[in-house]
Amino acid sequence: MATKFNEYAGLYSLLLTPFNEDRSIDYKVYEQYVEWQASFNPQHLFAVCGSSEMAQLKLDERIELATLAVKNSGSVPVFATANLEPSWFAQVEEVKKMEQTGVDGLVFITKGFGNDPDRMFNYICELADKTALPVLLYEFPGAQPHIMDGETYGRLAQTGKIVGIKDTTCTMEGITAKIKVQGDTNVLQANMPFLYESFVAGARGIIATPTTCGAPLFVKIWDEVVRGDFEAARKTHEHIILLDDAIGDGFCASAKYLVSLQGVPMNWYTRGNHNLSGQRLHAIKVWYGWAKENGVL
Description:
By secondary structure, this protein is an alpha/beta fold. It is built from 11 helices and 8 strands.
């Protein structure tokens, strides 16, 4: 039986940031990449995310990436992170600047308040009051402690200020704790091993690193979930696990290389310490050959 979901459920395809050899951003390739990601018709695009290497980007770079994502996304709505600056007042300004890019929604990271639920609750509510755009939460591992407990999420879900959360607990206990209290919001899954099980438990979407380079698989599994064909979704999940394993070592450089194999001229350079050996590149190429031959990608 098909299931009806709200407009903020579904697939959020993450966007990588392509760099030149000097690690400046290759905005021209980025525009091609956004168009390519949008061509698979996910429900949303997520610009300025962990996979975008947002922690290594300056504010003006993040604003430009969001602006270009909106420009090149066609009819696909774009969300972008808007609270990375260190001070409260700088974050309020960041929210304003991100709104001006034309994004359809903002993403707020949990800002390292995982050990202080009341502080996290008040912080998110106060920042959400600074925008009229829908707000998605993100347990960003780059700002630890980052995990939000189910009780705090339930309180936030009841405020009407947020539309969902990118859950990165990576445990079924953590995932289901939020699903039980999600109400009209959307618990979106970032963990691939438990992706299928999270759908069975009631998760309402996907927002995960492999979507950067394998969106067709996630469009497929979400379509299967929506129409209630969980046996087909289970089989698609098996292919998603293989994709996740293929890019797991050296992400996000590995994902950039897989994108290049699919026709977008993206270098695998990052601003982190990623380095892909010749054998690692060959392994990804062999996996992609298999995936293409068997209609997986």
